[in-house]
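Subject: for your reference before the review

Hello V.,

The reviewers asked for a structural picture of the protein, and I figured it would be easier to keep everything in one thread rather than splitting it across files. Below is the amino acid sequence we used in the manuscript, unchanged from the supplementary table.
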Amino acid sequence: MTTTTTLTAPFRFDVVGSLLRPTSLKTAHEQLAAGKITPEQELEVQHAEIKRVVDEQVKLGLKAVTDGEFSRSWWHLDFLWGLTGVGKYDYQQSYKFKGDHTRTDNAELIGKVAYNPDHPFFAAFEYLQSIVPAGVLAKQTIPSPTMLFRDNRSDNWSQFYDSWDAYLTDLAQAYHDTIQRFYDLGCRYIQLDDTTWAFLISKLNDNTADSTQYTRWAEDAVKVINAAIADLPSDLTVTTHICRGNFKSTYLFSGSYDVVAPYLGQLNYDGLFLEYDNDRAGNFDALDQIWNHDEHKRIVLGLVTSKFPELEKTTVLQERIQAAATKVPLNNLTLSTQCGFASTEEGNQLTEAQQWAKLALVIGTAKDVWAEG
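And here is what came back from the structure prediction:
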């Protein structure tokens, strides 16, 4: 089970993004909110903890590392709030996770959407880039532009635009300029995290739902994503993570990829991280359509769950990789956990030691399957 081709990002073993927040960081956030410490003091704690987890990722042998998303509270909202034309408000309801309740923050349009040259994520990336050793990539994660489609976030679009298409054009340009700025700061690996496709899976599989609206959303998603990532530098890897929801080890959506596979196959990403850690994702039948026979595209199999501490059996993981290889060539497959470990600062229900064990399992399994260091 070997191959002689060496992949760039996404790597044979890769990390999705978020990591469990340490107690010291959670405490610093609480103290900052209470006015007990200054933003500079909170940032000092944040930077120290980021350095610690970056060092641990490097020690494990990961070829791309993240800052664990330690500079944000939500995987998506903090980024959206940083765009020009997007504001924060109280949604006054929890997001509909199966078994728990979230905080009620949300985003809304307050003007035309545009690139913000002072987006706080740029400073966060600069710090990450400054501490990553040579030979290791600093991986940046941001939410997909489609995350503005849902949960009432674009309800105000007609106040600022003459047409929905004009809004999508501005949204794509704002993302394109933002990604270009990350590149200018040294980023060579960026990932757009996306729960909208899983939402569409649930809606398009629901015979009682009006499929017309959701089909249009799928078409618009392809349009805005491909426009956002068009004409970027050729040495920038752009991937996506198709997420089914991740909050305190609970989830949002279920269903096979089949109904959205034709759309996913049109996306011009270099790689797609897909969740396949349990039966909620269905089988591998849709993989060949998602991959779309693009020899330059990699499918990252999220076979190891980040929600629970129990370690999967290596033999089972190897068997599942081989099963996926009947749909997509083994050379175009890689391995990761199914999601990050803390899409919000609350984090999943496992310890940091168990988190590192999960990543070590991903690395060890991938080395066994592909015989690559």
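For the response letter, the relevant points are probably these. The first strand starts at residue 64 and ends at 65. The first helix runs from residue 23 to 33.

Happy to draft the paragraph if you're swamped.

O.
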